[in-house]
Amino acid sequence: MIVIMKRGTPQKEIDKLSEALTAKGVEVNPVVGKDLTILGLVGDTSKIDDSWIEANRNVVRVMHVAEPFKKANKMFHPEPSTIRVGGQEIGMNSRLALIAGPCSVESEEQICGIAAEVKAAGANFLRGGAFKPRTSPYAFQGLKYDGLELLMEAREKTGLPIVTEIMAPHDIEIFEREVDVIQVGARNMQNFDLLRELGKTRKTILLKRGLSATIEEWLMSAEYIMAGGNENIVLCERGIRTFEQYTRNTLDLSAIPAIRKLSHLPVVVDPSHATGKWWMVDPLAKAAVAVGADGLIVEVHNDPANALCDGQQSIKPSVYRQLIDDIRPIAAAVGREM
Ligand code: PEP
Ligand code: MN
Hints:
With 338 residues, the chain is an alpha/beta fold. The chain is built from eleven helices and 14 strands.
């Protein structure tokens, strides 16, 4: 339920109504915008009578939110959210978030070398997996805690904030301390215990869309994190399973305008996992910017042929540099800064 209040309602009156609503057992989330103040109510609102709220002379209107996601809903937060992390901003009113780096951290030389190259190309975040969710238990599982150390070293050398995937709740403490953006991978999008625990932190979470998740399920996963009080979420479309076998997944570009309509959260696109083919990264990265994505997360490797993970979808630093240059006019055409 949303309560829209008159413009210029004194704070004292907003607080009074919020308290009265809280006493009825719901959580009240006030959003003070330029033009209006709204109170977003979360919880069981079925026992609250609309006309009782509308009797308040500072209330313009009461609206019911049909969607099951509330805090992630645009109705609760009409302005697009800006996420501030590591000296950067992510969101519709910020420059594109350009996240790049290898699938996995493999060595000091590899991660520090790639970090310097993607930074020179224009990237503003470094990605790299230390804990890898592999389909086979016999495949390389990542350098784990040593990988985190190497990412920190690459951050130290380049100044790029680091984005890396978490797999288990017991690692939250170390990720909170050492990582800038915590990635929740597609396979863990509905790991509700993990999401709930991440809701207790205030870290920025890059929430990838599950392999077969609907847009609503994806936003409900964001809601799990937000319900705990952590509103710092960046969504990531990374392709979904369809009947098509030619590409690793099918990039759902329609998810970008859909998220825009439904939510205030920023959304970025991962053309690497979406296609599984390095030569498709360039056209789909461009398409993603054209449909309004707030950024890109791209796998870049200095030696894709010998990469320990996802070499077939990784582009070389020189290809990344060209891609970023080619994206500039596309970004400008859709009113985005880089
Ligand atoms: C990754 O980013 O390396 C990754 C494993 O992605 P996803 O969870 O989207 O498959
Ligand atoms: Mn990968």
